[in-house]
Request: fold
Amino acid sequence: MPTLSVIIPVLNGAKFLPKCLECLRQSTTPAVECIVVDDGSSDGSAAIAEAAGVKVLRTRGHAGPASGRNQGVAHASGDIVVFLDADVCVRPDTLARIRSRFENDPSIDALFGSYDDEPGDPGFVSQYKNLLHHYVHQSGHTEAVTFWSGCGAVRRAVFQAAGGFDQWYTRPSTEDVELGYRLRNAGRRIVLDPHIQVKHLKRWGLVELVRCDIVSRALPWTRLILQSSRLPNDLNLAVSQRLTAILVVASAIFALINPVIGISPAWALLPLAAAIWLNRKFYLFLAAKRGWFFLAGALPLHLAYYLYSTLAFAVGVFMHVLVWRRQTGRIHSPAARPSESVGWSGNPDVIVPQALDQRVEPDE
Reply:
């Protein structure tokens, strides 16, 4: 029976970490260990984790969650490493489902789940963002082409053989997507299990939402797409989503040029109506969950997402042509960037440099 090690990177997560750890303690299938990797928090996150009785590691500070997860795995003993964000709560059966999938299907190398449909924060933007994420993962292909570290698990030997997360990412971004691409390129099997769910506690604001969508998702994901030449027909990159983006941009262009050339307003409304029709199942899902007034507010926000994400993609292509592709060497090279911040629990002053690939185990 495979054993589980839970890895939680945290940076100033004192607001949600206690709830996260408490839910883990209520798991019907406990992990052999929970490792919290503190990335230089100033709010006592490390002390909270220590008081909860879990193993605590410390980075040199603000190295990013990718580095923190790698550090956690370097100290893990479980056969399966389970990655959780510090602002999520597992269900009592989350770990049990993860272990069961790996135990019953040896062909699975990695898997991930989704947020549930009851986000922890009651705010409108938080509800919208998390319900969107829930719907996307609930509708995705079970044979996945990417990975999600909010609630994802990998066989430890597979993770180490792949070189871990790319520590080029020093802030939360698409480091999990990039890992998923490398795993698939190596012939590994990744599964999306929609029954494995966690509750997201984070409070989203509108400005933060747009900034995150552009800076932490759209731009780095564009870079990754162009470098890997991989544009999978799944999740946010499904053909229907690409077509929606084209329709929304076309509608905006027609609306802008209408005063100049005097075309009918229908030229702007028709592609917008088509975009809404393409996403009708999601909109009906929102209406069923939160009502039609909620949908009335979420619909323009969702359509705006396609507009600014497409513009960000265009900026990313421009940057790729002028800047990114001129940089020498392979940008994403985790093996060339071993962790330099492997701390020792209980003593933040003891730092032991340790390359992740020094502990690679043979495939079984």
Observations:
- The domain at 4-203+330-355 is CATH 3.90.550.10 (Spore Coat Polysaccharide Biosynthesis Protein SpsA; Chain A).
- The longest strand covers residues 190-200.
- The longest helix spans residues 292-322.
- The chain has a mean pLDDT of 85.
